[in-house]
Queue: 2 jobs
Job 1
Amino acid sequence: MLILYLTPEVWPYKRVGGLAEVARELPLALGALGHTVAVVTTKPRLDAQMEAGLQRLDVTLEVPVSWKRHQAQVFSQASGPGVTNYLIGHEHLFDREGLYGNAFGDYEDNAERFIFYSRACLELARVMGWPVDVFHANDWTTGLVPVYLQSIYAQEPLFAKTASVMTIHNLGKQGLFWHYDMPLTGLGWEYFTPEAMEFYGQINFLKTGLVFADMISTVSQRYAEEILTPEMGFGLDGVLRKRRDRLTTVINGLDYEAWNPARDPRLAANYSVDNPDPKAVCRQELARLFHLEQDSGRPLTAVVGRLVDRKGLDLISAAMEQLFDLGLDLVVMGFGEDHYHARLKELERLHPGRLGVHVGYEMDLAHRIMAGADMLLMPSRYEPCGLHQMQAMRYGTVPVVRATGGLDDTVLNHHAARPGTGFKFEPYDVPAMLEAVQKAVAAFKNHQEWRGIMQRGMSQDFSWQAAAPLYVDIYQKAQNYAAQRRRG
Ligand code: GLC
């Protein structure tokens, strides 16, 4: 099959969340199955070295946005067997510090930016002469692609058999814009209805994708159930319930080669499930790196990811003193809301030797943290899938998580009577979180028990090899539905 995988976040060019890693690894797994994948993304501001790895193609795209014709350059880079990344370059729209926004909030021209990008994906396929089997759109930024295929591009011969799939990585971000932006889409007002793109008076990009895609998927089973409820459906649960027959689930995988403690060159020592002892060397190094007390005997606990409410940062920052009282040392790495950066830096100053904070997300450091920590704390308010808990388990770091979405699907709650791979709690509040941490600390003190939890986690298999064929199946279903749709 010829698959176009669409998202503005692709590792190593740009990362905001886990989607960037998925956008690199899933296409590679599909390529390994013999499919051809073009990953079409936007060209962010890159450093010279990254820039040097790109090849500029001899085409200029003319992308209509309202009355304008945006000219876009196209760059490419081979990613792996069968997989090529294409970067759509537009200086004014995408050569910026942030992808979605900056410290002042979302960019005010996001409607134009992502309409441009969505149409550029279709224009690229047309100019290159690609008879695409599937456009695989991801999240709100690419939500208009499915409707374009059934409207502006419906008569395009290259797309005569083309289907679309929409994957939800986060239902909380929908791409809501005022109705005056409708003309930018190039679609008529007849699309501005509750059955199509309209959502309480606004245009909703994600809703549009969910309404028009031939198949819909999301990234964990529990999240798929959660988004059908009013509590977690962000106003789109009704739309999703209506299209329930098209909604499927594939849990994300982890790149088991990139994340391999036995071979990871970033680590101070390598270790494996059969030989976990050298992990202690990584732990020492991590404590040194973050200026924590050496050999404290206390469980070194990591918090990694976006420092935002959604990831449970409100719980963590409210409970910090109690976490110290329970005996944790903490390292925090991530980037997010300014007030969390400030609060965490302040706490770091107040608790020297107990808390280390790195504002920013560095992939190398992420590997070292997963290797050096004893536990990972991830009390997300909601979590479509989550990758850090899988990385943690792979590195023998025990996750303490809220039982939501993919966290619930991937972590098996540990009891002395029923051995598991981590610790879970349900209610989103400080006491529930502390109770789970307390259980983890108790288990930590029992060397045998702890080692069992670590080793069970390290033996889990969350690989893309299992996930990729499931997507192929979804693509085939989407093609069947698209054929039905065309027959009317
Ligand atoms: C988003 C979700 C996260 C998921 C990732 C990749 O970042 O918040 O849970 O793992 O997308 O699907």
Job 2
Amino acid sequence: MGSLIVDTPVAIGRISDHGAQVLQWQPSGAEPVIWLSSHAVFARDVAIRGGVPICFPWFGAGRSGAMSPAHGFARLVTWPCTATTEQDGTVTVVHVLTQEQAVDPQFPYCYRMTSSASFGDELTLTLLVENTDATPFSFEVALHTYLAVGDASSVSIVGLEGAEYHDKLLDRHVVQAGPVTFDGEVDRVYSSTSDVILRDPALARSVTIAKSGSASTIVWNPWVDKSRAMADFGDEEWRDMVCVETGNVGDRAITLHPGEAHEMKVIVSVSSHRPSS
Ligand code: BG6
């Protein structure tokens, strides 16, 4: 399983061919922005815990609730790397996945996915899905971004106020009042096209997640018990991460007719609140 390391005056990053998964990114001078578990497993057919998994063609157990593997097959397979370019210290890595590399009887279509990850003073992720089949298909998709935080119990997320969400833990629909905060397990799918800002007082910084082509934002933190239950997740690591995922899931799934394409884009940026010395 190959991975490419970026180390320029602008940014440090790493991306694996396994799932075309970003594993690391931090602009020069910043602490890591993308989180990777110290218990992550790097093996065939195993999802890497952390980074930015690409969920496709379904999210979780899918709209039927019966799909497997969780979050689809795209994060479990090797994506051929088709291009690597560098400009002014920003490195862009392109991976392409088609039915020739990954097929599943639950998604029996010809498709082409192009993932582009640019590691610079921002992290820009673009995912293009094309229908190369002769029949229409529908899919769910998400860039499952694990963000590194100083202390999950003190962060807040702004930008989702007033958005309706499906609380997956309680299986009920709720409208968000005020910023999102964490004092227990959180697993929510918001209907929202808005950008969000993660405020992190412990690291004295804010992380902005700007997006386009996405009508869902998923917020997840496993908290104490679920962390202990996951073999590839440290018992205390729930404090170190928060997932703010950009996608089109549930009733926001995308339908493409033959020849059509859909693009989703995420731009992650960080601003420090510390006075510069
Ligand atoms: C989130 C889901 O996106 O991913 C959660 O909303 C899930 O329900 C989490 O637990 C992690 O999923 P996985 O398959 O990587 O363990």
